[in-house]
Amino acid sequence: MPHADITLRVPRRAMLVLSALLPAAAAASDLASQAARLTADVPHGMVLYLKHCAACHGRQAWGNGPREIPALAGQRESYLVAQLAHFIDGDRPGSERHGPAMHEALQPPDVKRAQALRDLGAWLSRAPSNREPEQGAGQALAAGKRTYGKACAGCHGANGEGAEAPIAPALAGQHYSYLLTELRRFSSGHLAHAPGLPPTIVGSADEQQALADYASRLTRASASSGE
Fold first, then answer.
1. Range from 18-22, 61-65, 180-184 carrying the lowest mean pLDDT
2. Could you give all domains of the chain from N- to C-terminal order, each with its CATH number?
3. In 53-136, which ranges are continuous DSSP H helix?
4. 95, 185 in Cβ contact below 8 A?
5. Which pTM does this prediction carry?
6. 3-state percent breakdown (helix, strand, coil) of the chain, nearest 5
7. Residues 185-200: pLDDT tens digits?
């Protein structure tokens, strides 16, 4: 293998430097890939969740809209595993309000490993989703629907069901305040999104509010039935 030959010729000190410079995204991707090859222990995922996550996200994993804590129950498993890996490696810092706590919660050795991510993702994806997420005022839903169709439906699905390839999270059943915060972070350049997608695609501040309100009203029922 040419790669192996090149590696053998690199001095050990240089290899250490190069290893330190590898992007966190590569490590996170490797951890998520390892997790995907494992068999999930769903009951153990619940144990891990209650121990490390429930204090903020709630025992049912429904989050908290006013506190901008996302609902996790019913989310796509592949997305959950990938994002947990990114939080562990620091590649996803999260918000100033909750990011540090999220990173810290995933550092204990019983959760900072591929099997734990597999188990957590499996349990959360199977947990009943919140049927009554926080919503906005409902004053500009038509505008929100137009923006959603233009900016979001291509990846997240017409009903907010998300996708596996490329991985896109489900938005149906998510809280208004959390969605709005993420839209604002994206539009300001503080949150990375799909490659080649300009921050301006989510529109003005008013359009973002309308978009978050509309998306928060998408339901798992419509996502499943295609209505």
1. 18-22
2. 22-126 (1.10.760.10), 141-225 (1.10.760.10)
3. 54-57, 77-89, 99-105, 114-126
4. yes
5. 0.80
6. 55, 5, 40
7. 888 877 777 777 788 8
